[in-house]
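User: Here's a structure from my thesis project, written as structure tokens. My advisor, Dr. K., wants to see whether a designed sequence matches the one we expressed. Can you design one independently, without my sequence as a hint?
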């Protein structure tokens, strides 16, 4: 977690200073493009201001700016299920049953398979194998400003 919350301009400048010359300028431009597009997208989806989101991202940043502000770490919130509260999420998927992307059997945990012959975890190397869903819970977003992967609830089958 970042101990020093950087401003927008400081983020771009830190990226520039990671390498001299044209390479530093290119890195700064890549970081700027990711910051700009993610702040716009995340603000449109969540309703939080860009400033609130930038502060939340900076609080979550655990590496340098070039390594943190990347598309794979901060995906656009497309095809993401959005909920205002955790209660809304539980209400939408009340069964508490999820389809493991690996064995395709029912799990009672949305993040790791509870089948005795399968130990798949959505937070492992291969994630949800493209068979799960991504969620955002607005009330938790500023503490965890990333979409979260989980197994697909049976309600979506």
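Assistant: Designed independently from the structure alone:
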């Amino acid at each position: 977690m970042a101990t020093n919350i950087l401003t927008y301009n400081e983020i771009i400048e830190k990226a520039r200073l990671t390498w001299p010359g044209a390479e530093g300028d290119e890195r700064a431009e890549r970081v700027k493009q990711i910051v700009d597009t993610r702040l716009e997208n995340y603000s449109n989806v969540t309703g939080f201001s860009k400033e609130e989101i930038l502060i939340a991202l900076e609080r979550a940043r655990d590496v340098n700016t070039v390594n943190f502000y990347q598309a794979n770490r901060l995906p656009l919130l497309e095809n993401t299920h959005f909920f205002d509260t955790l209660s809304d999420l539980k209400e939408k998927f009340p069964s508490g049953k999820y389809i493991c992307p690996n064995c395709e059997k029912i799990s009672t945990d949305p993040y790791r398979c509870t089948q005795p012959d399968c130990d798949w975890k959505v937070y492992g190397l291969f994630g949800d194998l493209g068979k799960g869903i991504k969620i955002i819970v607005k009330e938790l977003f500023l503490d965890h400003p990333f979409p979260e992967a989980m197994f697909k609830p049976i309600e979506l089958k």
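When you compare it with your expressed construct, this may help: The mean pLDDT is 95.
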